[in-house]
């Protein structure tokens, strides 16, 4: 069995080391931001070159664990218990939770299915990856939660899949194990920890063994549903 190049996962190792440099309060917030998501993906391959093939999209699935390390934040004060007319309202008055405009780094580790359907529906190409996205994410308070958007690179290593003759290797399916590209993210997180995200992986690495004038790139659109499971392990303030 072919071993995976460990050097491909250096970014994740850097993330783990960064946690050890956080103070106790930051560690608690980072743990709280740990989120588990599952999604349905619409995956495709885009092939360029003289033998260009137009693939059909394929529905796949993924699972992802992420956390977030905030490096900049501006807190919006609580409201509903103090104003110019009544500066000292009792504690029984409903209070609006603090909100925060923030920027953070969101690394993760993800199992994601990519691939496509061959034209005519004769067979499917399944590419399964262990992927590490590293996004810079901005949060903007909105309603009962916050809207967020992010952008950053991803690095992926093929760990399985299937095709008529296998999938990875020049003499099998013709696909390389390593993939990398750009990840885009747009979503909303409720104050109770439930999150809904739209994601798009724009593959930039050539994932095909082919002639010099032919290259293949993955394209994946995903709808993610998740929950901040870290909230279960941190004390409420």
Write up what this structure looks like.
There is one protein chain. The protein is mainly beta and 237 residues long. It has a single domain, classed as Porin (Beta Barrel), CATH 2.40.160. The protein has an eight-stranded antiparallel beta barrel. The chain starts with 9 loop residues before the first helix and ends in a 10-residue tail after the last strand. About 13% of the residues have low confidence.
Helix count, DSSP H or I runs of 4 or more residues: 2
CATH names the topology as Porin
The CATH architecture is: Beta Barrel
Which strand order does the major sheet show?
1-2-4-5-6-7-8-9
Mean pLDDT: 80
Helix and strand string, N-terminal first? HHEEEEEEEEE
Per CATH, the class reads: Mainly Beta
Report the span from N to C terminus: 49 Å
Q: What is the tally of beta strands?
A: 9
Structural domains: how many: 1
Unreliable stretches, pLDDT < 50, 5 or more residues? 8-25, 80-84, 90-96
Major β-sheet annotation: 8 strands, antiparallel, barrel
Brief descriptors of the model:
single chain; mainly beta; Porin; eight-stranded antiparallel barrel; 9 strands
């Amino acid at each position: 069995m072919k071993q995976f190049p460990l050097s491909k996962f250096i970014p994740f190792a850097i993330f783990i080391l960064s946690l050890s440099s956080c103070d106790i309060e930051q560690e608690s917030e980072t743990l709280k931001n740990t989120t588990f998501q599952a999604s349905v993906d619409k995956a495709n391959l885009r092939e360029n070159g003289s033998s260009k093939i137009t693939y059909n999209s394929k529905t796949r699935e993924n699972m992802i664990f992420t956390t977030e390390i905030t490096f900049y934040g501006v807190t919006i004060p609580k409201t509903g218990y103090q104003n110019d007319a009544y500066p000292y309202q009792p504690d029984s008055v409903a209070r609006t939770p603090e909100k925060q405009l923030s920027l953070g780094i969101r690394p993760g580790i993800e199992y994601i299915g990519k691939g496509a359907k061959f034209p005519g529906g004769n067979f499917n190409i399944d590419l399964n990856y262990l992927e590490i996205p590293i996004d810079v994410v901005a949060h903007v308070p909105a309603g009962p939660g916050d809207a967020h958007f992010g952008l950053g690179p991803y690095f992926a290593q093929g760990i399985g899949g299937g095709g008529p003759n296998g999938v990875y290797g020049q003499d099998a399916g013709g696909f390389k194990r390593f993939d990398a590209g750009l990840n885009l993210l747009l979503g909303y997180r409720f104050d109770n920890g439930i999150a809904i995200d739209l994601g798009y992986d724009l593959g930039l690495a050539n994932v095909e063994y082919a002639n010099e004038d032919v290259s293949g790139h993955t394209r994946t659109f995903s709808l993610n549903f998740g929950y901040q499971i870290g909230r279960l392990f941190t004390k409420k303030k």
